[in-house]
Amino acid sequence: MKRTFLSGAGLIALAALALPAIAEDSDPALQDVIIVTGTRPHTPTESSVTPEAAPLAGGDVTYLTARTPGGARIANGELSGQMQYRGLFGERLNLRVDGQRLASGGPNLMDPAFHYAPAPLVASVIIDRGVSPVSEGPGLAGGADAVFKRVDFSDSAEAKLGYDLTFGARSVNQSFSGGGVVGASTDTWRFNLLGAWEKGDDTKYKDGTIAGTEFERGVFGVSAGVKLGEGTLSMDLRRQNTGPSGNPPFPMDIRYFDTDFARIAYDTEIAGIALQAEVHYNDVEHAMNNYDMRPPPSAMNMREAFASSTTRGGSLKAGFDAFGGTLLTGLDGDTVDHNMFIVNPMNANFYVGAYPHITQDRVGAFGEWTGSLGLFESELGLRIDQHSYDAGDVVLGSALPAMPQMLAMQFNAADRSADDTTADIVARFWTPSASGLSWRFTLARKQNMPGYIQRYGWLPLNASGGLADGNIYVGDLNLKPETAWIAEAGFDYATPNMYARPTVYLRQIDDYIQGVPFDATPGVIDTPQEMVSSMSGDPTPLRWANVDARLYGFDMDFGYDFAGPMRIDSVLNYVRGERRDIDDNLYRIAAPSLTTGFTWDAGDWSATFETRAVAEQNEVSATNSEAKSPGYVVLSLYGDWQVKDGVRLSAGVENLLNQVTRDHLSGYNQNGYGDVALGTRVPGAGRGVFVRLSFTG
Ligand SMILES: [Cu+2]
Known about the structure:
Largest sheet: 24 strands, mixed
Structural class: mainly beta
CATH architecture: Beta Barrel
Bound molecules: copper (II) ion
Number of strands: 33
Strand content: over 45%
Low-confidence stretches: 1-42
Distance between the termini: 13 Å
């Protein structure tokens, strides 16, 4: 198996502390741990997964991150999966696509960050264990970076071709995916093209077809770098076109996303100070509707929504030796513009400026020190961000009734601009590995700004940043930032034939933003908002509010390599989310799960029998009218063959027994086509085979 170690700035020191047996040793047994569980114990502060490491479950890398300790997948569509990490998801996680932060375009996160990281392009996903370092930007707790494949600088002056391509197919939805990078490099320049194409039909399961699971996505771009004197200049350009792709748990499906990415960075070193300057840009254009991929409603109720977002950002970082360690300092910031309007294609007078040119500006500064403190290695970080935000004027068409017209007038008359300051403090400690054992402790205070949906939702709408709970929501201009107080402890233990990495954690979140009953008399239609919401089919809308919450849990991965070719690898997850201000649970929290792979490893080929057992979830949110879900067990069989140097074949059967699974995080079906009853949880894929072929050179 090809192994690429990615070490970002400041991580070189950490890499030296990585568990030697697993991270650097070439013992094939332990190396293959990665193949089965999809996890690669990396450093005390990070772990990573590679797309090659797991069955081909789909093009969405959130299928992959769901296989890691603390991970789960919020399934809002084949290309709209959100990573959940230790109970948090959506914009609370600090997600990066090839190092770049971005604002999603869809008000229901139909394009969550990893929508822009198609599996054929991804070299690995690096997960910040527990909490993200402050140097990677704000975020309420953890985060992850989907690192793209690249033809990197070589160590010779002679130009050399390079490629890393992956092709896959699955029978369960007749899907094809293919792509990767092709390019050339020397020790002073590098250049590669990148591209991917994925297309699939509706997914089948035991009882028929799951409507609205078809998808289509293409990406193309370039990545280049050149060494100039003491520095390196690099550039990435990319366009992604997502075609019609379904979202069964939402009231609409994707018609398209047309999204551009650009990034230019310069790295250098002056007088012992490592410097990086970077600017980035991304622009999302999106359309979705409620009639192309599902039974069309009456002409009066046909809707198409157009959304866009533009992010412009940059950062300047400096790293140098200080106080017996390394200090990384920096300034960063971005400005985001969101716009969304809704039309009725059958009525030219129906126009709603639902989120009118909302701007979110941020400027931040941070310092992050890494070094030894007594028995511990440590990372101590502080960041301060200054935020300002505003919204434009709502414009409404004449077809809209009096109530929305009145709400729009109130919104336009209100003061919509304000400022906030957030402060993040992170302290991570770990002991150098001794006899394979390394202890880890984290204490942090992290803050997160309210999203634009939560703040500026003047019109009662079924838009919630992807919660897909069926509720209509109303925003609040006076929301405060969320504040999480985090404590985590665990250890990494590895010997030549076993490993275990357990973690316990507690996250106390003040001012957690979630829906609450609109007023003291829910169901009594005595406000314009409830009237509008009721006309849209929900007489009991929710209002975004600051509440108090707590998340806690336990997760671990562990494995044992028996004498001979047998090996076992497991991932165990348990997380609880509850309200502290009232007796209720948090919404859409993953059920406890245990995934175990039994692997026969014969050197250049291996075969794995995998069981995934998921418990029922009874700890549901009454506020969000969340339904309980039953437990399930899925069996899979897959294998991996290193055909020859640079050619690798994987194949397998998913869901061997063709079970009907209804995962707690899969969302309630709103698509009237197909065989899944409306309002029931969207089932997982039925039995199917997959093949995947990889070429590297
Ligand atoms: Cu959308």
